[in-house]
Amino acid sequence: GQQVMQIPQYQHVQEGEDFTTYCNSSTTLSNIQWYKQRPGGHPVFLIQLVKSGEVKKQKRLTFQFGEAKKNSSLHITATQTTDVGTYFCAGPSGNTPLVFGKGTRLSVIA
Amino acid sequence: DTEVTQTPKHLVMGMTNKKSLKCEQHMGHRAMYWYKQKAKKPPELMFVYSYEKLSINESVPSRFSPECPNSSLLNLHLHALQPEDSALYLCASSQRGFNSPLHFGNGTRLTVT
Q: Is residue A37 within 8 Å of residue A43, measured between CB atoms?
């Protein structure tokens, strides 16, 4: 079945440093979605990428979808303590439900 | 704030109890989901309802019984659970199905004693 791998599993950064998490799927994705889950909270939808090679920005966050629609990345510039949480990528393949990556847990040291 | 409302927020139940989790959304979404999430793990899909019909059951044990009374409501009936079923249970909805983003509720943190 479809698998979505996400690295790294954990990332500790000093406030102000950049952060990147990578997502790879074993199959071509219809789209890729990114979610953020704060400690003790629930996943919150951040963004959806649909087109091959698509790049979208949300303030300090930059999301990319690979040309083959099998990989994606999330880059945060100049991290802040409010960025703390676990970032999940998730993607449907064809007519299958979303498969979530294992997530990258980001901690930011002030 | 979330537009998907789940109750209760916390639930402690014994292995012989029967309880229900409730979920409500008023966004007009036609797909609703139950996910289970263990600590430090991603959400794990349990059930999907599409247009009020059960469309996916991810081989969930029968001690979990979903119900969709109408397009806005989703229940999860619990009976004879095991301690390993303790987890965060998340309800979610999406506008059109698998390609649409998920809107999650705050979840019910379930402890089985």
A: yes
- What is the DSSP track for A48-104? EE-STT-EEEETTEEEEE-TTSSEEEEEESS--GGG-EEEEEEE--TTS--EE---E
* Exposure on the CB side of residue A31, measured as CA atoms within 13 A: 15
* Nearest Cα to Cα of residue A70 among A39, A101, A105: A101
Q: Is B99 on the interface with A (CB under 8 A)?
A: yes
Summarised one tens digit per residue, pLDDT across range A4-59 is 999 999 999 999 999 999 999 999 999 999 999 999 999 999 999 999 999 999 99
- Name chain B contacts of A45, Cβ cutoff 8 Å: 101-104
